[in-house]
Amino acid sequence: MHRPPSDAPAGIVHLGLGAFFRAHGAVFIAEAMEATDGDWGIIGVSLQSPGTRDRLKAQGWAYTALELGPEGEASQVVTVLRDVLVAPEDPQAVLDAMAAPTVRIISLTVTEKGYCHEPSTGRLNADHPDIRHDISNPLPKSAPGFLVRALQARRAANLPPFTVLCCDNLPENGRVVRGVVMDLARLIDPALASWIEEKGAFPSTMVDRIVPATTPADLDRLEALTGQRDEAPVMHEPFRQWVVEDRFADGRPDLAAVGVQLVDDVTPFEHMKLRMLNGTHSSLAYLGYLAGHETIADTMADPVFARFVDRLWTEEIIPALTPPPGEDLHAYARALHDRYANPAIRHRTWQIAMDGSQKLPQRILGTIAERRAAGRQVPGLTLAVAAWMRYASGQDEAGRAIEVKDPLAPQLAALWRDDPAETVAGFLSLSQVFPPALRDDAGFAADLTEALRRLVRDGARAAADV
User: Fold this and answer.
1) Got the DSSP string for 36-98?
2) pTM of the shown model
């Protein structure tokens, strides 16, 4: 693939340059530039550590995307990156890049917790330490802080705002990000908030591609395959989907030319993916991990869990969804089943289990609340919530320690009790996780207590085999 000159201006700054974006959005944008040209090179930003920057810099910002199919592997060199900045090292350089006149889109994959919001309400958590810092300091720490301060700089320079393109798994992610940006802007400068409200663009998106973590063995295998050493490759499945609301403030790449679905309303696509893919992915991750399965493919190779996830789709999730235009939800479920079972994708249950307190409201609890409001039972998803609680306790079924990665990890571990009813009462008190409809639902508390009791007594595999 031809690489444009290194001094060609970047049109996009991406916050959170992790493996997912490099295996998904960056590939789409690179292919769109190849197909139709345009100054849409990407400046990546790491909001935490320099590791990705250091590995990519030695390679001239190029990296390999390796497709892992059931029948073989295929590699592609991606050359769309222009530079990578590390925010903690030089936050002013990040703001300068975001405020550059040539930059017209800021995209983000900073995970659910990166938006410093309350997952149960979608509102900015003004007490978050990074937000408290960003309110009074012009050099921010958080993703919302960088967005607001960069928009402030553009307004001062009489430049139009950039489009904020969220690529994280949040329902109505554009609305959520707009909300936290507006909340923070009002705390900093109400006039700035009014300008953003009038001129800003926050299209919602739906992203889909399974991207397992890269291992040292992957680096060696890729070198044997290509004859070149790449210290920063990404692994991904063949499937990919990107649905984007076509509302941009100042232009965009020709995404439709490379298969991106440009729509007026992404909401039904988001609900389909968040609940059918992400919800079942998390369910399998917690139950599979507790049962001793390292990856989703391993979990799916166990017929008990394969049947369990099929029941989740057909009996609990699909009946609560409105199909997006042109989509067959049962066909989508069959395709997900095959994708999960792909033995070439080593997607670790532990990796998917991270940050459950941030993920469950969007992925699982919304379906539970809607089904219960309609008078329906959701035993499988309730068991998945119980499995999250057991996982978050920090000990597996054999008493071994679990390295729980979650912003609320110490608080979650402290809620565990020998009595399942006490444990459930403690977890349901978490207003930042459980919506009022479930916190106040005595029937749900009873069902969750029984699911947790069965899980502790019989183990994850037996509990799922109903």
Assistant:
1) H--S-EEEEEESS-SHHHHHHHTTTT-EEEEEEETTEEEEEEE--EEEEEETTT-HHHHHHHH
2) 0.87
For 42-94, write each residue's pLDDT tens digit. 999 999 999 999 999 999 999 999 999 988 899 999 999 999 999 999 999 99
Q: What are 130's two structure tokens?
A: 């990074």
SS3 240: coil
User: Taking a C-beta distance cutoff of 8 angstroms, is the pair 335, 254 a contact?
Assistant: no
The burial class, CB within 10 Å (0-12 / 13-18 / 19+), for 409 is: middle
Phi/psi at 442 (nearest 5 deg)? -65, -35
Distance, CA of 414 to CA of 290 (rounded, Å)? 19
Residue found under tokens 């941030």: 358
Q: Is 368 exposed, middle or buried (0-12, 13-18, 19+ CB in 10 A)?
A: buried
User: Which strand ranges, in their side-by-side order, compose the sheet holding 163-166?
Assistant: 81-86, 41-46, 10-15, 105-108, 163-166
If pLDDT is split at 50, 70 and 90, which confidence band does 8 have? low
Q: pLDDT of 240-286, one tens digit each?
A: 999 999 999 999 999 999 999 999 999 999 999 999 999 999 999 99
Residue 3 clears pLDDT 50, i.e. is over it: no
The per-residue pLDDT for 121 is 84
Q: 3-state class of 355 per DSSP? A: coil
Identity of residue 277 = L
Backbone angles phi, psi at 134, to 5 degrees: -70, -25
If we measure between CA atoms, which residue out of 24, 32, 180, 164 comes closest to residue 98? 164
